[in-house]
From TrEMBL:
GO terms for molecular function: glycosyltransferase activity; kinase activity. Belongs to the glycosyltransferase 2 family. Gene3D superfamilies: Spore Coat Polysaccharide Biosynthesis Protein SpsA, Chain A (3.90.550.10). InterPro entries: Glyco_trans_2-like, Nucleotide-diphossugar_trans. It comes from Sphingobium quisquiliarum P25. This is Histidine kinase. SUPFAM superfamilies: Nucleotide-diphospho-sugar transferases. Keywords: Glycosyltransferase, Kinase, Membrane, Transferase, Transmembrane, Transmembrane helix. The lineage of its organism: Bacteria, Pseudomonadati, Pseudomonadota, Alphaproteobacteria, Sphingomonadales. Residues 49-211 form the Glycosyltransferase 2-like domain. The keyword Glycosyltransferase applies.
């Protein structure tokens, strides 16, 4: 085999390894690591404040408020705070009508979730701050099970488990559900072996004393949850703290959502870099494996495709042409399909493209501070 062939083969293998690393190789490594058990809890659970931000969530508010009323009935001492980010629908009015249940803070206009959460955290009185989203519903036992984990003084933050609803409504929803099931298992293993490396906004909590200061441009979920690790406390996941959210079913909505999240995540990574470098070696390994490698999955995919094409051309130009034509036909069929494996493959490729676009956008100095609810949710 000639040197160019060896080089192209090495590039292809490296790209395949990069694509498989966060979903196959990294989980296998985690399973080999020893467990780090939590200390048994004791005493009365800490007080808590539940915080969420909303923008044009009027459609979700009746169910959300009913869910909050159920939680309040089970935990009368639970403080509930909401921030409205200048909604143009009836979101604020619906929340305000339940002033007996929720304390509403109105923003001056579109200022973004990070600023809204900071305002709520500044007035919250609970020892533990519980963060969730306006369209997320919590199971009845969620708050009690979450607060019980704080019986271990080394635990500084607790994540819940997100269960998606509407998995079979589209190929986009099915791929999103599969991705999230993998993500949940990774967090379970990370928690078992020490720390989870970052939370999403559906359901997580931290001790109020650990809440950090940060700019409005970062991803607040990642920034706030990582403050626990930076403080030398444990960030763990509780399987019995269950939140439920409806999946995004439209490709356009999901693409824009992933671009926004990736852009803010990379901007947050740049902001947190000095503290990330000071983490323990195992936590740096986890962070790089679950986040950085995945953010560049689209680059691995493109480089691997080019290497495979060049290898095929060196064997036979006709082989390369046939491969390209077959790939184009399969992509067209997958794009038009309403479901099935080809549609799923297209949605996976779209997800990689959106994430890479978001990272490149952030690297160029641009980020996103506001959000819009997905219409296809």
């Amino acid at each position: 085999m000639e040197a160019p062939d060896l080089l192209l083969g090495a590039i292809l293998l490296l790209c395949v390894a990069g694509l498989l690393w966060p979903f196959l190789i990294y989980p296998l490594i985690l399973r080999l690591l020893p467990s780090r058990p939590e200390a048994p809890g004791g005493g009365a659970p800490p007080s808590a404040s539940l915080l969420f931000c909303a923008y044009n969530e009027a459609a979700a508010m009746p169910e959300k408020l009913a869910n909050l009323a159920m939680l309040k009935e089970r935990h009368p001492e639970l403080e509930i705070l909401a921030f409205d980010d200048g909604s143009s629908d009836d979101t604020a009015a619906l929340i305000e009508a339940r002033g007996d249940l929720v304390t509403l803070v109105r923003g001056p206009g579109r200022s973004g979730k990070a600023r809204g959460m900071k305002r709520l955290a500044a007035i919250a009185r609970g020892d533990v701050l519980i963060f969730t989203d306006a369209n997320v519903m919590l199971d009845p036992e969620a708050v009690g099970n979450l607060l019980a984990r704080y019986g271990d003084p080394d635990v500084g933050g607790v994540l819940g488990s997100l269960h998606y609803v509407g998995e079979g409504e589209s190929a986009t929803a099915s791929v999103g559900s599969l991705y999230w099931r993998i993500e949940e298992r990774l967090k379970d293993e990370e928690s078992r072996t020490g720390n989870v490396l970052g939370a999403d906004g559906s359901i997580f909590s931290i001790r109020r004393a650990l809440y950090p200061q940060f700019p409005d441009s970062v991803l607040d979920d990642l920034t706030v949850s990582m403050a626990v690790v930076f403080a030398g406390k444990r960030l763990v996941k509780a399987r019995d703290v269950i939140a439920r959210e409806r999946l995004v079913t439209g490709r356009g909505d999901e693409y824009r959502r992933k671009v926004r999240i990736a852009a803010r995540a990379w901007h947050t990574h740049a902001y947190l870099r000095p503290q990330l470098r000071r983490m323990a070696a195992i936590d740096r390994f986890k962070y790089a494996s679950r986040k950085i490698v995945r953010w560049f999955g689209g680059l691995f995919l493109m480089a691997g495709a080019v290497a495979a094409l060049l290898l095929a051309m060196r064997i036979s130009p006709w082989l390369a042409l046939g491969g390209v034509l077959l790939a184009v036909v399969l992509l067209i069929l997958g794009w038009r399909a309403k479901g099935g494996p080809l549609a799923a493959i297209v949605d996976i490729l779209i997800a990689y493209a959106a994430t890479l676009q978001g990272v490149v956008k952030a690297m160029s100095g641009r980020t996103v501070t506001v959000w819009n609810p997905a219409k296809s949710r």
